């Protein structure tokens, strides 16, 4: 009996990997790609598949581990988001030259918008730079079905293949048939060939020439050739011949809108599933047949640039398509109307309501840490990093956010910038970084800061998980993603091994003690023989139900001392503390309050108190 299931795009990708006989998948968590590996873990348990799955320390390591499995002739996948590819760019560029043996698919989830990223960069451009083919699915079903093609292409040409879904594909849901899953059986067999796998610069030039030859063949691969989706359209008179070339989820939007506008029977639409390398034959044929070509793609003009014709081709480089932002259906409709010379769409503007900015969860230990940092260093400089703790910006304790690990490097940079200022006038510098981010990219930056003589306070926000992306385990947790016990790495010992002389751990819920420790750390940075001082704010994420240990909940209440000053709401910004208006006492929402009890340290009047405690 055939069964069907509504699958999340990332679930469909995971199933597509299993159906492709993939034997290893490595990843670093990052939205919109995080659920792929999580789904693979579930499938592995349910089906008993001999898959090796791992949350790697960072994307570069994930790429290199999976690549070695491919060198041994086994199908492999490395999974990450678009900014994660920046971290893995080094091995990607080199792997394109060496090539692979077993199929190697690099799943990179792009985030047009962006919804949960610091950039909306287009990974297809890195694919072009590396000279590897890129596949661009437009729906969850297409993502699942396209993965076997990607592995086959990779093995046929012995080249890494980039598979590039976007947020709307990863997080869309689609009904599809479920098929029996069978385990992949492949024996590892690494064939030594130093001239290829360890090539010196002279041989790299030879490999580069071979790579160019592969790309030329791949561009004309029949199974991935662009296809006309609406054949049978009568050819209009010369001078008004239009066509659309599209890829990815924007194609799905365009198809639906064109049917609504009556354009589906009038304008040919070509789907490109492999936007790079674009077939020169296809390009030349399109330019010969049509007078105007509209290219719809996200986020950069990858196909458009390959057409190399600004007179006929319209898109992002001509201003026909916006140069930034996600191509939502409303935008696509406006573009299509302009291209087809239709009147603008009537727009009814929705009513506007005051929104609520995102904030840290009620009871989040990071809130206590940031409040203490502001209290200890009211005129300090606060470099921070990538994670849910980026929301410390709301508490005024985050000044910079660049990329993974940059808080430490930038703290060092600020120290050197102010080095010539008299010590009593130099601002305190307090960087913040999460435990997962510290493992990912903070260790090299910390070593560099120490050996370069920098002096600042580093607060490692250790909530014992990767909270922002779904509570994936960190190297400090003591087990892998499937629960297998492994060595539990100690952040204090790692910090000491980096050369740091001042390392202390404190619970940020103990707000006064934590604040005093920060001041003590700052004194160390300014003392003779001092250096970087590291304070580890250790308290498990309150939203992670897998955390071990007891939790004592304190029932909080507002007493008669409340003066309605609003300080607790404005400066502490806990969602459970709610203003009831001018001259009215603050209210504690019992549905939101987690009972952490930190707010009692915040009120200068002593109006917030714990009335009872429960385990």
The figure for the number of domains is: 4
Total number of beta strands: 23
By CATH, the superfamily of the largest domain comes out as: Thiamin diphosphate (ThDP)-binding fold, Pyr/PP domains
User: Could you give a short account of the major beta sheet?
Assistant: 6 strands, parallel
Are there runs of 5+ residues with pLDDT below 50, and where? none
Description:
α17 links the parallel β16 and β17 (457-462). The protein starts with a strand and ends with a strand. Strands 3-2-4-5-7-6 form a six-stranded parallel sheet. The protein has a five-stranded mixed sheet with strand order 9-11-10-12-13. The mean pLDDT is 91. α1 crosses α2 and α11 (249-261) crosses α14. The protein has 615 residues and is of the alpha/beta class.
Architecture blueprint of SSEs:
Elements: E1 3-8, H1 9-19, E2 24-27, H2 35-47, E3 52-55, H3 59-71, E4 76-81, H4 82-87, H5 89-98, E5 104-109, H6 123-130, E6 134-135, H7 140-157, E7 161-163, H8 167-170, E8 173-178, H9 194-197, H10 201-219, E9 227-228, E10 242-246, H11 249-261, E11 269-271, H12 280-289, E12 292-296, H13 302-307, E13 313-314, H14 329-339, H15 365-376, E14 383-384, E15 400-401, H16 406-417, E16 430-434, H17 435-451, E17 457-462, H18 491-497, E18 502-506, H19 511-526, E19 533-538, E20 553-558, H20 567-572, E21 577-578, E22 587-588, E23 608-614
Parallel strand pairs: 2-3, 2-4, 4-5, 5-7, 6-7, 10-11, 10-12, 12-13, 14-15, 16-17, 17-19, 18-19
Antiparallel strand pairs: 1-8, 9-11, 20-23, 21-22
Helix pairs in contact: 1-2, 1-7, 3-5, 11-14, 15-19, 16-17
